[in-house]
Amino acid sequence: MNSEQIFQLALGLNEPWCVSKVEFLEGEGQKELHLTIDYKIGFFVDKTGKSTVHDRVERKWRHQNFFEHKCYLHCKIPRVRTLENKVEQVSVPWAREGSGFTLLFEAFSMLLIEQEMPVNKVGKVIGVYPNRIWNIFNYWLGIAYSDADHGNISTLGIDETSSKKGHDYITVAVDMKTSRVVHATEGKGADTITKIADYLETKGTLRESIKQVCIDLSPSFISGVESEFSNAQIVFDRYHVKALLNKSMDDLRKQELKAHLMLKGQKYLFLKNDKNMTVSQKIQRDMSLEALPRLGAAYRLKILFDDFWSIKSPQEAQGFLAYWCDMVKEAMIPQFEKFADTVMKHWKGITNYSKYHISNGILEGTNSKIQLAKARARGYRNKNNFINMIYLIAGKLNFNYPFYST
Question: How far apart are CA 332 and CA 35, in angstroms?
Fold first, then answer.
């Protein structure tokens, strides 16, 4: 068995394709392996035995390295004349049309990306300009996303995430039952909800099929959901509501700080849970709460509000929340009165939590993964690349790379 036959077996080539030449040539600083592929003469013929080959077009593909040597495949691909007298290029089994890489090379690139290696790093490792790796990634990601089953969805979680420092946002929609991202789109306005609804309808999930949507208290999200998912119950996200309450607590601390310097550097003492604090931190916090009655009263209200999230009866939850808002009025703490006004304004969406018990905690976890990927890549200038990376990280997609048969 000669070297051509060995490489033909290694490449998994079947008739009419064969390796006709193997050579090492000088490349960029080292020798490169170049394999020339040819085809069996007389294979492309019509019923009369006449050749249908019109002409041949020379192509070159980057293949996986042979040990430390870069490897390239060369082939003069025949263009054949069809029965309709049209000239068409023959498809080759080792590469997809329009790609300068073999399928195995593309699959290896995707494997590195799936193992959370940044695309720029992948390009550096395998010696290819990163934009070409992005083209590979976006091609296969696009196929997997297009094939994804996003029908029969009834509960959505919607939140925004940033694509880079500043105010560049991507709105992400999650199927709450499967914990997977189903769609992501640029911006964070009401129009993003329309884009999500339009996409879901193309996949078989009608607007009226959505029964619950979990969002933050963004007016644009509220408007978009009410317009596009009119059958859905809005559930305001627990973590965003708690964040607003924590802001009220911190605003009061800042006000008290002006007169009581002892509060300097104590911001997180009033925001953390006890389980995340040291003994000394708890003692310091308790001393401040005892010394400053208004701060102590506010802190007790903050802790009491957490009981709301564990109430399972909608009637009890509404009664508790009404009682809590009355206590805020009696305490006469402006920062908390502002929060109580927000609760009253968004009463149904907040109390719906006790009925449906859904929150964007799933999305918060997904967002952490997204931000980690963004940090590894040092941000994303191209939003389409960022959106596709979100699908890879959190879309639970299936990739079926069409390896040629061996």
Answer: 82
Amino acid at site 141: L
Q: Are residues 120 and 131 in the same domain?
A: yes
85 shares a domain with 133: no
Cis peptide upstream of residue 130 (ω within 30 degrees of 0): no
How confident is the model at residue 164, as a pLDDT? 66
- How far is it, in rounded angstroms, from Cα 230 to Cα 37? 60
Residue 231 maps to a domain: yes
Range of the domain at 297: 239-356
List 387's β-bridge partners, or say none: none
Query: What's the rounded mean pLDDT across residues 362-388?
Result: 81
Q: Is residue 99 a contact partner of residue 109, using CB atoms and an 8 Å limit?
A: no
pLDDT tens figures, 232-290: 999 999 999 999 999 999 999 898 888 787 778 788 788 888 888 888 888 888 888 88
CB 102 within 8 A of CB 73: yes
Spatial distance between the Cα atoms of 352 and 358, rounded to a whole number of angstroms: 9
User: What pLDDT was estimated at residue 262?
Assistant: 75
Q: How many Å is the maximal CA-CA distance in the chain? A: 103
Question: Do residues 94 and 69 touch, judged by C-beta distance below 8 A?
Answer: no
Q: Is 125 found in the same domain as 23?
A: no
Say whether pTM exceeds 0.90: no
What does the alpha-carbon distance between residue 320 and residue 37 come to, in Å, rounded to a whole number?
77
User: What pLDDT, on a 0 to 100 scale, did the predictor assign at position 257?
Assistant: 84
Is 233 in the same domain as 364? Answer: yes
Total domains present in the chain: 3
At residue 389, does pLDDT exceed 70? yes
**pLDDT of amino acid 343:** 96
Q: How many alpha carbons lie under 13 Å from residue 311 in its C-beta half-sphere?
A: 19
User: Does any domain span residue 110?
Assistant: no
